Amino acid sequence: VLKVVENLGVSYVRGSDSYKTKLENELRKLKFPYKALAEDDYEARRKDHISHFILRLAYCQSEELRRWFLQQEMDLLRYRFNELTDSLRQKFLEHVNLSFEAISEDVKNELANELYASTPGLTMIKVKEQMFYKVGLVDAVDLFRARRVFIKDGFAYVPLKEIDAIVLNNYRTKLSKALALTARSLPSVQSDERLQPLLNHLSHSYVGPDYSVQKNTGKISLEQIDALSVKSYPLCMRQLHKALRDNHHLRHGGRMQYGLFLKGIGLTLEQALEFWKKEFIRGKVDADKFDKGYAYSIRHNYGKEGKRTDYTPYSCMKIIMSNPPSQGDYHGCPFRHSDPELLKQKLQSYKIPPSGIAQILELVKGMHYQLACQKYFELTHDVDDIGFSLNHPNQYFAESQKLLSGGKELKKELNNSGNSQQKSNSQESMNSSSTPTSSNTTADAELEGLEAYFAED
Ligand code: SF4
């Protein structure tokens, strides 16, 4: 839900009719109980509360996560608050101890001239139509300072359209403090072995198809890869592919990220071994060293070594949130991990028009990395609206192929594989972002071990 809120907040003017309609449709699709208060649905409200508090635990862990969570929660609250009827709004205000009192019609008529003169943007007719609240000055400092409200006897008379700003400010302060407090108590929560893996994965969880089994396996030839990397790779994979071709080597973070992606787009184990070997032996690694060291990790990715777990390609959240690249690494998400100036140069070299680059950099500045990637997709594929919410590099590839092939064979097959995997339950999906399809912490630990084994490279 919060990802949808983020997406729409960037693509539409918040509060506009199109924003509201789109958000309402999306929330309905996701079965989010945004009208639970209006419908007095206790169970739905309970679930909403529980999920909110779980997310607090997961998203209090870093400044970046906290900021993102706050922003989306604020946008969601603004929408839900404005959707309430007058009486429910009053009930809500009392419930959250913001006991602003709506003034009666008589008082409003009495003060109509003053309200009209002191409230910018309201005609006399609007004054008559609007509800006004009597608010203590402490809560209306900003409005008072900006001379946007009528003041009398120590109270501000705030029109309904400005009340949401007060409610949101109040909520922001409280939620921000609560997140800081939760972060402080994290060590004790994390010592609970039942909660720890869940919390670690939740902030970068991914619940879409995991792209581990592809019906198009073997349908891509190694000769096509260079062309595909230009046409259909997201920037993260294009960067890895180029670095591999240039340096004939990738360090372990890059090999994991790119290797699993290649598996996801349909490379067979034999093709993967051939692909990596050809490239590595052009550099400093000889065939013998490759067979003894690197081939093992490739077979491992395909579930042919160790615990024989079939590993899934990394989702965007996993790439963005974990294992940031250091000097000499090419993995990670360029929208998240590249210096903006370098990103700009890279986009220029890929012939992205200046206005598009400006839009992408603006999204990056606002920390909307996946939306920046969506914009990159739109610009490189010459479409106005990407038409899907991007969560996975393999999804990017599949959607690109769908578009470029006019939606023929590959499209059908990738969709099929996606659907089959969407059936997995939410717990499995949550863990799928962390790699093993058969999702368990043992397998996860084994992968960590494998990464460490090759870490020196
Ligand atoms: Fe790759 Fe996802 Fe970043 Fe796009 S948003 S570059 S697909 S990690």
From TrEMBL:
Compositional bias of type Low complexity: which residue ranges?
Answer: 415-442
Q: Where on this chain does [4Fe-4S] cluster bind?
A: C236, C316, C333, C373
One Pfam annotation, family name?
A: DNA_primase_lrg
One of its GO biological process terms is: DNA replication initiation
Chain segments annotated as transmembrane: none
Q: Name one GO cellular component term.
A: alpha DNA polymerase:primase complex
Keywords noted in UniProt: 4Fe-4S, DNA replication, DNA-binding, Iron, Iron-sulfur, Metal-binding, Primosome
One of the entry's Gene Ontology molecular-function terms is:
metal ion binding
Q: Where is this region: Disordered?
A: 408-449
Q: Which cofactor does it need?
A: [4Fe-4S] cluster
Tell me yes or no: is Disulfide bond among this UniProt entry's keywords. Answer: no
The UniProt record lists the DNA primase large subunit C-terminal domain at 227-397
| Record family assignment | Belongs to the eukaryotic-type primase large subunit family.
Q: How does it assemble?
A: Heterodimer of a catalytic subunit PRIM1 and a regulatory subunit PRIM2, also known as the DNA primase complex. Interacts via (C-terminus) with PRIM1. Component of the alpha DNA polymerase complex (also known as the alpha DNA polymerase-primase complex) consisting of four subunits: the catalytic subunit POLA1, the regulatory subunit POLA2, and the primase complex subunits PRIM1 and PRIM2 respectively. Within the complex, POLA1 directly interacts with PRIM2.
Protein name, per record: DNA primase large subunit
What species was this sequence derived from?
Dromas ardeola
Its gene is Prim2
